[in-house]
Structure formats: structure tokens, C-alpha cells
Amino acid sequence: MARITLDNLAHSYRANPTGEQDFALKELNHVWNDGEAYALLGASGCGKSTLLNIISGLLHPSQGRILFGDRDVTHAPTAERNIAQVFQFPVVYDTMTVRQNLAFPLRNRGADPAYIASRVQAIARMIGMESELDHKARGLTADAKQKISLGRGMVREDVNALLFDEPLTVIDPHMKWELRTQLKSLHREFGHTMIYVTHDQTEALTFADKVVVMHDGRVVQIGTPEELFETPQHTFVGYFIGSPGMNVIPARVEGNKAYINGSHIPLGRAYAGLDGDVAIGVRPEYARLSDSEGLPVKLRRVEDVGRHKIVRADFFGQPINIIAPEGATITTDMNRVVFDPAHINVYRDNWRVEGEAA
């Protein structure tokens, strides 16, 4: 297992980058703790796989260093990093049985046959393939082959890190939940450093101790699921995490008030001297409809999703989402929205401003 340090790390696929816009991975300085489970979360093309491939040694960065513990592995080949990587699409040996595929990494390292047998049996049980152990991999379905890939990645107990690059893409939805649960169980049991790349917020939030949110080649926040939900450090985090995402509304902020289209609302903290592109961000969970106070809105529709209702509204051309309790009554005269001041975040140029106690 290893602490992973990213020191002044950046990467461009261009031979001679001339500016930040030429970098697929913009400068990073982060330390990822030994034994924690991280998820790299972001939209396609944001740099997740580039970063994972640099960590694994499949790609050498344009600048900076990567350390495993105190050892600089920036230019070390993958084989010397002692990692296991599982890719988006299954990589298996078709001529081998499931048992032989799972045993391959251990046999390669000369492990004791009795240990190999017991470890393979345990992993097969974990991925639900005990009955197929002696079947050839050829002819198995894509999701079965991906389970073999996952199992082969998890079979070693001595790795510095386990890296997963969108490994559940071809897995059926029911099995996805089971395998995520098994990965969490594996992490609790053995304490491997795990890095899991995904564009699916549910996968990220249910798997990881900490989620690394990436946007446009940059890490915009590293935090627990609660931190990402309550205090998004960038408007992209607010938009990407949550369903629906955070409402972001341009505003003028002075002291402990935000002024929006001729109305003002109270804030839970005080702010001074904010210039640039200023906005407030409020989760739909912290908004409520009213018939007498708040900002004027025009209701467009109500979506009953069972556990709650999602109210779609319009505020001077800006869409606003409000989450109402399942049994809430919504009438036509409820045409105003109130935000909980304690849960309003303030942003300048898309980055959260802390503010002071009001």
C-alpha cells in the first residue's frame, strides 16, 4: 500500500504546449493518503483517465513528479510500481479457464499453490463466479469477462494501489450494486489504496471515502460525499453532484444580503468587496415554495418521483429546481421561493467564497 503524492503534476498531449489551454491535465499538487478509497469523478474528457494512467505508469507526465510513499516513480515502468489496474472493457485470456485467469497474477509471482487455490476461491465467491471456475473465458458474456478482470485485479493482497477505470460500464445494473459493495468490503478488509474512475456520481459517492471531482483537466474539490453536497467549492461540483443539481443564480452580494432582480434575500454569512462574476448556489433540498415571501417564480411543472416531488420553476428566465416532501400540497398561489440562509453558498468566478459569521 502507498501514500500517493502528486507534485506539480501536469500533462499535455501536445509536443510543445504554449499555455494552460493546451494541457489535458492542469497542474496538481495533492497527497492521497495510504489505505483510503478515492473516486475520480467528472464528465467525459475532464482528465480522469489521463491522471489514472500517469499513476499506473502507462503515461509519463509532461511535468512534475509522482511519488509512492517517499519513492519517486515518475519514470518507473508499470511493472515496478506494484499496482493492479482494471480497465473499462474486459481484458481476459480467452483460452484460459476462469480459475486460470484469476490465478495468473499469483502464479506469475511464484505464490504457493495452496494459497493460490484458496485466494482464487475467495475472489470467485466475491464476484459470483464459483460455478464457472472451470469454464473457458471464451464464450462468456461481456459482463462475466469484466467480473474476471475485476477478480484478477483484486486477487493480489500485496499491491501498492488498486486502480479501476470505469470498470462497471458493461456490468448489468443489479450486479453493479453487488460489486460496488464487494469492493467496499475488500477495502475494509485489506485497506488497499484504491482509486476508482467514474462519471457516475452514485458509483463515486457509494464507493469512496473521498471523491476527487475533476472539471476541464483540473481537480476542483476533494472531499467526503457530505462535503461535496453541503459546501461545493466550485459551481461545477454543485451542478454535477445531486439530482437535480444546485441552483446557481447571478446576484449582487453586500454584507449578509444577496440582491437579485430587484429583490433581496438574507445570507447566513457576511461578505465584503465581492467583484467579478458573483452568484449564489442553493441546493433544491434547501428551497421551499411559499405564497407570501421570497423570490417570485413561475411554476412550470411538478414531477412526483415517489420519495419526494421535484418542482420545476422559472425565475426571470432562469430555471430553478425545488424539492418538496412527498406529501406536500402545492397550489397555484405558491409562486414564490424561499432559500434557507444557512445553506446558501456564495461564488465568485465559479469558486466558493467562505464569508464571515454574520
From TrEMBL:
Name listed for the protein in its UniProt record: ABC transporter ATP-binding protein
Keywords from the named record: ATP-binding, Cell membrane, Membrane, Nucleotide-binding, Transport
Organism encoding this protein: Roseibium aestuarii
Entry similarity comment: Belongs to the ABC transporter superfamily.
InterPro entries attached to this UniProt entry: AAA+_ATPase, ABC_transporter-like_ATP-bd, ABC_transpr_FbpC, ABC_transpr_MalK/UgpC-like, Mo/tungstate-bd_C_term_dom, NA-bd_OB-fold, OB_MalK-like, P-loop_NTPase
Boundaries of every ABC transporter domain copy: 4-241
Coiled-coil region(s): none
GO molecular function, one term: ATP binding
SMART domains in alphabetical order: AAA
